[in-house]
Design goal:
binds iron/sulfur cluster; globular; alpha+beta; two-stranded antiparallel sheet; Alpha-Beta Plaits; two-stranded antiparallel ribbon
Amino acid sequence: MGNIIESAVSLRLHVARIPDTLFVVDETRCFGCAACIALCPVDALILDDLLVVVDEPTCTHCELCIPSCPVFALSLEKD
Ligand code: SF4
Ligand code: SF4
């Protein structure tokens, strides 16, 4: 079962970034709980003064972190 999950994650990480799309943190919602940070496999999320900031060029748009946010602050949006 673990192998299936790891394979799915690996596959997701190698999907090309969606064109004209940006990974966005809603600063009005984020309260710095850091739940999303531990899930990012490429360390694209950084906690800065109780606000998560994304290193957008590093983010692969894999969406792994998005469901972890309790206040729905993470999303992929049209550029
Ligand atoms: S979408 Fe994927 S790569 Fe981007 S910040 Fe979230 S977990 Fe990291
Ligand atoms: S999970 Fe949501 S509220 Fe918590 S740090 Fe990440 S973006 Fe902010």
